[in-house]
Write a structure and sequence with these properties.
With 91 residues, the chain is an alpha+beta fold. The protein is built from 3 helices and 4 strands; from the N terminus they run E-H-E-H-E-E-H. It has one domain: 3-Layer(aba) Sandwich (Glutaredoxin). It has a 4-stranded mixed β-sheet, with helices on one face. Strand 1, helix 1 and strand 2 form a beta-alpha-beta unit.
Length: 91
Amino acid sequence: MMEQHKLAAGAAQPDIVLLTKPQCHLCGDARTVVARVAAELGLQWRERSVLDHPELLEKFAEEIPVLMIDGIQRDFWRIDEDRLRRLLSQE
């Protein structure tokens, strides 16, 4: 059985953002991983299309999808589920 981790009471909610773009074959996999881990930990996350943000498209065009946590790039292309779980459990 999978062990569930939750944020300690009163802990700040991390800002989890998945940067994606349409017709991105890796974005669907990344979305599934982020949604699963966030739900397991009771966290909210959001998705932003780089096509709606030219500055993000210019910066991350070759790395989509990109996972940002509290404004820091934590992963790209293939989101590692175990690593994400560890990162978010430490917040």
